[in-house]
Write a structure and sequence with these properties.
By secondary structure, the protein is α+β, with helices and mostly antiparallel strands. It contains eight helices and four strands. The protein binds flavin mononucleotide.
């Protein structure tokens, strides 16, 4: 797979086979992620990889909090768009597409709740990678560097036949992660990535999300 193929083939995978992902493969992916650029080569990323019983315990503890409707206090607020914005419109469009593929009707509260919970369970992936940074750094500075590492993880995973889903849902109850994964307070938990072998029969995995045409986002000058 060449680079452009990888970029265009990557998509969020929300249904996985149960096959485990070896530590060797995950190591290679994270080593590739560490090749991402960062400001002044500061490399402000840290990774925690969870699998097996550790990940299953996390899922159970997170779902328990969710089902008791406990308030969420994420270390990093990924969702920051106003309700009357194009960003919200795009979010709604995505949800409609996923619900259609998963045969979830708008008024079906039980199915909607089950879908929400699935995200909090890291989509039942056999592995999850958490991306952390140090609280001593500025709130926004390391985000660019972590974003580069995040995309590198997703692209490198493709090389090994793996799928990924970047998800803030996985880090919305940071206190659970902090306690069970022994993450100190001076580390900020920014984002999670579910990793595993895609189940191509899972309906939501056929979603090819759209993009705005480039002429809406780019301005050319001097060409
Ligand atoms: C910062 C970030 C947070 C995300 N959080 C979630 C999430 O919590 N749940 C989810 O299903 N997808 C999540 N996604 C995946 C996006 O919905 C997805 O990237 C977007 O719809 C484009 O689709 P694609 O990845 O298939 O190209 C997240 C992506 C990013 C970059």
């Amino acid at each position: 797979m060449n680079m452009m193929e990888a970029i265009y083939q990557r998509r969020s995978i929300r249904g996985y086979k149960t096959d485990p992902v070896s530590k060797d493969v995950l190591t290679k992916i994270l080593e590739a992620a560490c090749r991402a650029p960062s400001a002044m080569n500061t490399q402000p990323w840290e990774y925690i990889v969870a699998g097996g019983d550790v990940l299953n315990d996390l899922r159970a503890a997170i779902v328990d909090k969710l089902s008791r409707k406990e308030p969420m206090h994420p270390d990093h607020e990924a969702i920051s768009w106003p309700n009357d914005s194009i960003y919200r419109d795009r979010q709604v469009e995505l949800a409609k597409k996923i619900f259609a593929l998963m045969d979830i009707q708008r008024e079906d509260k039980a199915k909607r709740a089950a879908w929400l919970e699935r995200g909090f369970r890291f989509f039942d992936a056999p592995a999850a990678i958490l991306l952390l940074t140090d609280r001593s750094l500025s709130d926004v500075g390391p985000l660019l560097d972590l974003g580069a590492a995040m995309q590198t993880i997703c692209l490198a995973a493709l090389h090994f036949g793996l799928g990924t889903c970047i998800e803030d849902q996985g880090v919305l109850y940071p206190e659970v992660l902090r306690e069970r994964l022994k993450i100190p307070e001076n580390k900020k938990i920014v984002i999670a990535i579910a990793v595993g072998y895609p189940d191509w029969d899972f309906p939501a995995n056929s979603l090819a999300s759209g993009r705005e045409s480039l002429d809406k986002n780019a301005r050319w000058m001097g060409f």
